[in-house]
Structures are given as C-alpha cells and as structure tokens.
Amino acid sequence: MSKKLDPRVRRTRQLLRDALVELIDEQGYEKITVQDITQRATLNRATFYLHYRDKLDLLYQSSAEILQELVSSIQPAVREKKEVDLLPNYDQPHETFMHLFEQIALNSKLYKVYLTEQTIPYFAAGLKDIIIEFVANGIALMEPNDQKLTVPRDMAVRFYAAAFLEVIIWWLEHDMPYTPKFMATQLMHITIKGPYMDNPFQQ
C-alpha cells in the first residue's frame, strides 16, 4: 500500500484485505458478500464503500497492492547492481533472492490462499509476470550477450521463472518449512549449479 495514505486508511484497508483473504480461504470467493467482509473486519458497509466499489474491486486493488510491494522490494536491488557476483558465497544469497522470499513471507497467508488453496487467476498471472521480469533482469545482468548463452534467452527466462514459481508455491503449500534466507540460498544454488554436489555428467 502507498506510504502516502493516512495511517487510518491503511489500517482500514488492511482489515478489509485480511477479512477477504480469510473468507476466500474458508468459503471461496464466489460465496462471500460485502456484508461478510465488513462483519469479519468489524467495519460497517458505508466504510467499505468509501474505499471500494464492490468485493471484486477489493480483490483487484488489494492484489495489485501486494504485487506492487513485491516489485518495489526486488527492483532496487536489481537496478543498483551493475555486475552480479553470485558464485563465491552460497551462505549469503544475493539480496534480490532474499527480498523475494522475505516479501512473500510477510504476506504468506494471502499468497498461500491466492496461489494454492483458492487460486485467484488475476493474482497468479500478476505474480508470474513479476517472476518472469525478475528472472529476465537477473540473466541480463549475469550475461547480457545472447551469443554466450547456450539456449535462446526467452527459453531460459521461461524455464527458470516456471521453476521459481513452483518452488514458491511448494514452500507456501508446506507452511514455509524453511526460512526466507534458506530458500533464497538454495534457489540461488540450484540456479547456478543445479541440485548436484558434483556434476554427474562429467567423467
């Protein structure tokens, strides 16, 4: 949510967003009403309509806010790096990987409900686009020259983006059994070296 919003407005929107997520988890989106949302948020309907036209508007706006928060958390770390050195120390994952998992952990209930339990296509598609851009930026920083890639750039981006998204979904489905730092470290390791201690394809 925008930092320019009045704290009371932010709190009201947070209450409504949390109520929406809880109710979607319990009942599914189609069954809930504005009255259900306001009752769960302990707010009145007039307050709801000061902020949103209907429950779909709440869903879209709250989803957009969460996704924008994710973008804002990972983009500065990418823009500020002219060169990316990922190889020397796997115990200190690159900050973009850390920011990705930390931000998802901050809103884990929403991500879990919208991605795994009651899939919200609008949200899932938005996150997919963000991950694709995240991966594309990372590959571009590591190797901007297409001639030095072993596969077409678009193919590499889609491959890694799909893998990243599935890892995130797995992490959420299993109630985040590992810390954001551990996840960032392992994802970085797999991205660079694969899952092997030693390359089994080398003699």
TrEMBL record:
Signal peptide: none annotated. The keyword Oxidoreductase does not apply. It comes from the Bacteria. It holds the Pfam family TetR_N. It comes from Lysinibacillus macroides. SUPFAM superfamilies: Homeodomain-like. InterPro entries: Homeodomain-like_sf, HTH-type_Tx_Regulator, HTH_TetR, TetR_C_Firmicutes. The keyword DNA-binding applies. The lineage of its organism: Bacteria, Bacillati, Bacillota, Bacilli, Bacillales. Residues 33-52 bind DNA. Residues 10-70 form the HTH tetR-type domain. GO terms for molecular function: DNA binding. This is TetR family transcriptional regulator. Keywords: DNA-binding, Repressor.
